[in-house]
Inverse folding.
């Protein structure tokens, strides 16, 4: 069997990386004798999912959550495809910038951030931040005074393997008030975000937060605050993609 090949920068730049190949993965494991258990991720598989999502949402700007898998090989490949990135920490910001990704392609999506991390992001040129509380909003205004602001809506997390309903987000009334307050503080109200839970099994769970977002957009437009950016999605891992131990 020929030696396994890895995805190279040239493959990524050409737009034609090699197809995912279980035989190639098995050869790689055999060649490198890595300790087990081990998880192998084919970069091409990640890119295939990105392209599929972009095809069905051609007008959307996709933000890959770096925390899902921050390996430079994956982030670099997605950047070459045109993806933007959601970062949740100063370390993730630094890793993206080190790969040459423009700060304009980064969104600081965590709703609880250190003041120093906000200031660092602002100094790096990142201008899109999320919040779900008045305290966080004021922190952003203080340390990133030119920022665009997203407010995160809470969802109930039903049918998700890993719901986040008790951890992040606020109700629609509070979201409206925060966006109005953002304007008063000199920030740019940009939109709303939401997360229906990791490993979501029910596509219908997007219906309610999308409807809430539409209502907020309409309400705030009548108040002279036009918004631009709602969203939030996740992907369910098929059972056949479970980690392989050997």
């Amino acid at each position: 069997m020929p030696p396994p090949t890895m995805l190279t920068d040239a493959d990524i730049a050409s737009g034609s990386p090699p197809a995912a190949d279980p035989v190639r993965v098995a050869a790689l494991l055999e060649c490198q004798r890595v300790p087990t258990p081990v998880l192998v991720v084919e970069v091409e598989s990640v890119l295939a999912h990105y392209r599929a999502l972009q095809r069905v949402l051609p007008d959307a700007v996709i933000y890959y959550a770096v925390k899902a898998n921050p390996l430079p090989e994956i982030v670099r490949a997605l950047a070459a495809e045109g993806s933007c990135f959601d970062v949740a920490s100063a370390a993730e910001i630094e890793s993206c910038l080190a790969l040459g990704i423009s700060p304009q392609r980064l969104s600081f999506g965590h709703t609880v951030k250190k003041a120093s991390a906000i200031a660092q992001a602002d100094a790096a040129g990142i201008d899109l931040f999320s919040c779900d509380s008045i305290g966080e909003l004021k922190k952003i205004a203080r340390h990133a005074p030119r920022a665009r602001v997203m407010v995160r809506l809470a969802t109930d997390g039903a049918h998700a393997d890993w719901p986040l309903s008790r951890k992040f987000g606020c109700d629609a009334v509070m979201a409206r008030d925060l966006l109005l307050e953002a304007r008063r503080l000199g920030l740019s109200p940009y939109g709303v975000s939401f997360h229906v839970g990791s490993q979501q099994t029910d596509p219908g769970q997007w219906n309610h937060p999308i409807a809430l977002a539409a209502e907020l957009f309409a309400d705030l437009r009548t108040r002279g605050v036009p918004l631009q950016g709602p969203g939030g999605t996740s992907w369910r891992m098929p059972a056949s993609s479970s980690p392989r131990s050997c």
